[in-house]
Design a protein that fits this description.
The chain is an alpha/beta fold. It is 31% helix and 11% strand. A 6-stranded mixed beta sheet has the order 4-3-2-5-1-6. The chain is globular and about 50 Å long.
Length: 281
């Protein structure tokens, strides 16, 4: 049974300045030159620990959608993913329970009031998760963060009907809480019945998404997305993680699992020190 593995992964503002993650991403691609943990992994260096003002970083909460009906069927028979029955698959009864549990957690922990923005894949199961976890009204009157749908972080496209979305017109009536203005086409023009997106294409799309993410002005962002998207995006840069963290960072996400990361512009962290005359110190 899938569970909401969140407690050990939550990172809040109060813990950012003392978190001793020993991992650094080097310059594999533009994405890697931008993401950096608060502390570097150069264990043989006398300056391995780095500090940077929080205003020059982002906290990103990665969430895999809760269990959906195609997850249940696909675990029993992978060919079930080819069935039109699971077109734009919705959450299962267990998935709805997972959403409720994670929603209660982010509220009780105080995380919800810290999040500036929620970004969701425009597939039904992801949006159900995003709205259920971060967009649920509460008696406390706590205002929910805005939620926007972005195509770049959707699941691997093509062949499997579960990975094809409905029209934006249909979604707009189902999810009035979500801003769909960044979706260019009403119909799903990315999904092809006979062509499955390659792993490399998904990874490239994931890196493009992260590069776009750094242009956002918000500093604490939740991203609700999918198994393969997370797997291929993180695996594409696994060799640039410190060996002690590769397996943890690239570990498969459970349904409705939340993992938090600190993202810093590495170019700022690694720039040489200069004096008032512009000379390197």
């Amino acid at each position: 049974m899938a569970t909401c593995g969140v407690d050990r992964n939550i990172i809040t503002h109060s813990t950012c300045t003392c978190l001793s993650l020993v991992c650094k991403l080097r310059h594999l691609m533009p994405f890697c030159s931008w993401i950096h943990y608060l502390y570097s992994a150069d264990m043989d260096s006398t300056t391995s620990q780095r500090l940077i003002p929080l205003g020059h970083s982002k906290i990103i909460h990665l969430v895999r959608h809760a269990q959906a009906n195609h997850n249940v069927a696909g675990k029993k028979d992978h060919d079930a993913l080819l069935s039109p029955e699971f077109f734009d698959a919705s959450l299962s009864s267990l998935g709805l329970e997972q959403v409720s549990n994670l929603s209660n957690h982010v509220y009780a922990s105080g995380l919800l009031k810290k999040i500036d923005l929620v970004i969701t894949s425009p597939l039904l199961r992801a949006m159900q998760t995003a709205v259920g976890v971060f967009g649920r009204e509460r008696s406390s009157g706590l205002k929910c963060p805005p939620i926007i749908a972005v195509e770049l972080c959707r699941e691997r496209t093509g062949v499997h009907p579960c990975d094809k979305r409905k029209t934006i017109r249909e979604y707009s009536s189902l999810f009035p809480q979500i801003d769909f203005s960044l979706i260019e086409s009403d119909d799903d023009n990315l999904w092809k019945a006979d062509v499955r997106e390659t792993e490399e294409e998904v990874a490239a799309r994931g890196l493009k998404f992260m590069n776009w993410l750094k242009t956002r002005h918000e500093t604490e962002i939740a991203v609700v997305t999918h198994h393969r998207f997370l797997q291929y995006t993180l695996s594409a840069i696994r060799n640039d993680f410190h060996p002690s963290l590769r397996s943890e960072i690239c570990k498969e996400f459970s349904n409705c699992e939340l993992r938090s990361m600190i993202m810093v512009d590495k170019r700022m962290v690694n720039s040489p020190t200069t004096d008032s005359n512009g000379e390197r110190a």
